[in-house]
Design a protein that fits this description.
Layout lengths: L6 E6 L4 H12 L3 E6 L2 H7 L5 E5 L8 H16 L5 E4 L3 H8 L7 E4 L4 H13 L9 E5 L3 H11 L4 E5 L2 H10 L4 E4 L8 H10 L8 E5 L4 H8 L5 E4 L4 H12 L1
Parallel strand pairs: 1-2, 1-3, 3-4, 4-5, 6-7, 6-8, 8-9, 9-10
Helix pairs in contact: 7-8
Length: about 250
């Protein structure tokens, strides 16, 4: 038997024969497996410990709002400390859950029936190089022009995790669920424009300290003056090149 001497936190919503097989397999490889019911406080007490979190989701997870709410809280907790979980679920549940719990898409998925060899190899890699060591920063692009936002995403996705929203209020909702390291914010947007978005984010404790850089086609003296009075981290015109933008972001993060 290999002595891996690592902690596995196996989070269950119900006991099943299959999940018992997963537990036995991991224990046979030398891992210390702690089975936790869907208990937020227990996960909160372990989230900073070395190890891997594995969620075994029940087949009825998408039909049970209480279970989805519990999952949302627990995934949010793990994501907030930049940990990465392994999720075992039904294939058809993935799209539904990613739509309702955006940050769940950052975690590792295994569909039932589980390919046990691939699963064990993934756990081994996560134990050696945990998800929290992923050094890629996360950037949110807020722009009502999806074509331009998509182009910028293609420019920078090799270096950063990138998300896109196309309206100011979408940005507010997104950021209350999912932390980011910097926001690239358009100036001119319908309903709520960029400066208004910045002001609203500064008023929320959870988002008040996120660096905001304007990425906009509006370079008029009046627009720049209005924005700079709000003290963003920067102001970039959309005429910038890929190379210049990447260099700018590297400077900001360094």
């Amino acid at each position: 038997m290999n002595d891996n001497s690592g902690n596995i936190f196996l989070i269950l919503f119900h006991i099943s024969v299959v999940v018992k097989g997963v537990e036995n397999k991991l224990e046979s490889l030398g891992y210390n497996v702690e089975v936790i019911s869907d208990n937020y406080e227990k996960i909160n007490n372990r989230v900073n410990k070395e190890g891997v979190f594995i969620f075994y989701l029940p087949p009825d997870i998408t039909d049970d709002q209480l279970k989805k709410d519990q999952l949302f809280k627990m995934i949010g907790l793990i994501s907030s400390v930049r940990r990465r979980a392994v999720i075992i679920a039904e294939k058809e549940d993935r799209d539904i859950l990613e739509n309702e719990i955006p940050q769940i898409s950052d975690h590792i998925w295994f569909e039932r029936p589980v390919d046990m060899d691939a699963f064990v190899e993934t756990v081994r890699k996560e134990m050696i190089s945990p998800g929290e060591k992923d050094q890629k920063k996360r950037i949110l692009i807020v722009d009502d022009d999806p074509s331009y936002a998509g182009m910028v995403r293609e420019w920078i996705k090799g270096c950063y995790h990138v998300d896109i929203v196309t309206a100011g209020m979408q940005a507010i909702t997104f950021l209350l669920r999912k932390p980011v390291d910097i926001i690239l914010l358009d100036y001119e947007m319908p309903v709520v424009d960029g400066p208004q978005v910045l002001q609203m984010l500064r008023q929320e404790e959870a988002t008040s300290n996120i660096p905001i850089v304007f990425l906009t086609g509006n370079g008029t003296k009046e627009a720049v003056a209005r924005v700079m009075a709000l003290k963003p981290r920067g102001y970039i015109l959309k005429s910038t090149t890929k190379e210049n933008l990447l260099n700018y972001l590297r400077d900001k993060f360094n």
